[in-house]
Specification:
The structure is a single chain. The protein has 392 residues and is α/β, with parallel strands linked by helices. The chain is built from 13 helices and 14 strands. Helix 1 packs across helix 12 and helix 11 packs antiparallel against helix 12. The protein is globular. The strands form 2 sheets. Strands 10-9-11-1-12-13-2-14 form an 8-stranded mixed sheet, sandwiched between helices. Strands 3, 4, 5, 6, 7 and 8 form a 6-stranded mixed sheet that branches. Strand 6 (195-202) and strand 7 (209-210) form a beta hairpin. It has helices spanning 29-36, 43-48, 50-55, 86-93, 114-124, 136-148, 174-188, 226-232, 243-246, 261-273, 288-294, 299-319, 369-378, and strands at 2-8, 73-77, 128-133, 153-157, 162-168, 195-202, 209-210, 215-218, 236-240, 254-256, 280-286, 325-329, 348-353, 361-365. The chain has 2 domains: 2-99 and 220-378, 3-Layer(aba) Sandwich (Alkaline Phosphatase, subunit A), CATH 3.40.720.10; 114-218, Alpha-Beta Plaits (2-Layer Sandwich).
Length: 392
């Protein structure tokens, strides 16, 4: 038996009740995409019941209305943890609720504390450029030439808890960048920084391009996750995309760091085709919706990326046996029709598909942890500490 947990990164479905605290009141990733592109869309998601999910919040999506007979159980989930970042969202989906949010930094120069800056310069041997909140593509264009002329490494943050290091691959080889990031991860631990991110790029001034060699160096989870839990119960755990980075490889038997949604979807199909009789948990992150389109406020790009995912879902469902489980959800929002360039504090959708199983309205769930608890139920493992199962 297999469980597939598919995370459509940042595909939020409406502002949470506390969104005003984060400046996100009125955000709705799915709605604003549908309003901008109102034709019929996302046939597979609509058939599963995606429109039914959003309708629970009193919203009807133009072009993806509720299905009269959804083939999946449907709901939405509230995030209990403070924050709206990748690590917090994925950790809560895996069973961890954070009482204390990760440390974020001011957007204006200087973003990072002076002791951290000094320690980084001593560790890396480079002076720093930037030291402010910025869009990655923008700050690379702004400071890339100075970096190439030997003036230092580009360091920046965002509204999330991140320490990002951007370098040209011909100036600082990727292997060396990763080594510097590993050391920086240790420097950032006392500050409770969620992720140190390697952001290599190539090209010439005016034509810089970030590469697929991005790598996230996350804090290790503070407690056991569903990955640890299932691994101890002899369930093979597989991470696809940036899952290994998010969990510092903890609890993962096989980790595939495929870059981009198409590669991650292809890997998912390949893993499902192999070892069909083996008990497995596949945890997949599809990052393009967030990284390439949400942050850049590209509604059409986000829509097109969802169309690719939607077109692959039938292939995934066709490979499933009656013993298998598919859960589709998200980790936060990143509304491309909203102000700014950062994540948005939103409900996330919940679609639960099993062949031949009667579907239900799963309602508005109190926590993302319900996913972890349900996976424990599905594999008949001991209960997790947090969450309420929606699996009988």
């Amino acid at each position: 038996m297999k469980a597939i947990l598919l995370i459509i990164d940042s595909f939020g479905v409406g502002a949470l009740p506390d969104a005003h605290i984060y400046g996100d009141e009125g955000a709705n990733t799915a709605l604003h995409i549908c309003e901008e592109i109102p034709q019929k869309k996302w046939h597979s998601l609509q058939k599963l019941g995606f429109g039914n999910c959003v309708n629970l919040l009193g919203v009807k999506l133009p072009g993806c209305e509720p299905s009269h007979n959804p083939i999946a159980s449907y709901g939405v989930m509230n995030q209990m943890s403070a924050g709206k970042d990748t690590t917090t969202g994925h950790w809560e989906l895996s069973g961890i609720i954070l009482d204390k949010p990760f440390q974020t930094f001011p957007q204006a120069y200087p973003s990072f504390p002076e002791p951290l800056v000094n320690d980084f310069q001593e560790l890396s041997g480079y002076k720093i450029l930037g030291n402010k909140g910025a869009s990655g593509t923008v700050i690379i264009e702004e400071l890339g030439q100075a970096h190439m002329e030997g003036e230092g490494m580009i360091i920046y943050t965002s509204a999330d808890s991140v320490f990002q290091i951007a370098v040209h691959e011909e100036i600082v080889p990727v292997k060396k960048l990763y080594s510097i990031c590993e050391g920086t991860r240790k420097l950032c631990d006392p500050y409770h920084v969620g992720r140190v991110i390697a952001r290599p790029f190539i090209g010439i001034p005016g034509h810089f391009k970030r590469t697929s060699a991005r790598k996230d160096f996350s804090m290790p989870p503070p407690a056991n996750t569903i990955l640890d839990h299932l691994k101890k119960n002899s369930i093979q755990t597989i991470g696809i995309g940036k899952i290994g980075d998010i969990f510092s490889e903890q609890g993962i038997d096989m980790s595939f760091h495929d870059a981009g949604n198409k590669a991650c979807l292809a890997r998912t199909l390949d893993c499902m085709n192999k070892n069909k009789n083996k008990d497995q948990f596949l945890f997949i992150n599809l990052v393009d919706t967030d990284m390439l389109y949400g942050h850049r406020r590209d509604i059409k790009g986000y829509y097109d990326a969802l169309e690719v995912i939607d077109g692959t879902l039938p292939k995934i469902m066709e490979l499933m046996s009656k013993k298998d489980l598919l859960i589709i959800t998200a980790d936060h929002g990143c509304d491309p029709g909203f102000k700014g360039t950062d994540h948005t504090r939103e409900y996330v959708p919940l679609l639960v598909y099993q062949k031949g199983v009667e579907t239900n309205n799963l309602g508005i769930r109190k926590s993302f942890c319900d996913v972890a608890q349900s996976l424990a139920s599905f594999f008949d493992a001991l209960s997790m500490a947090n969450g309420k199962s929606f699996i009988n």
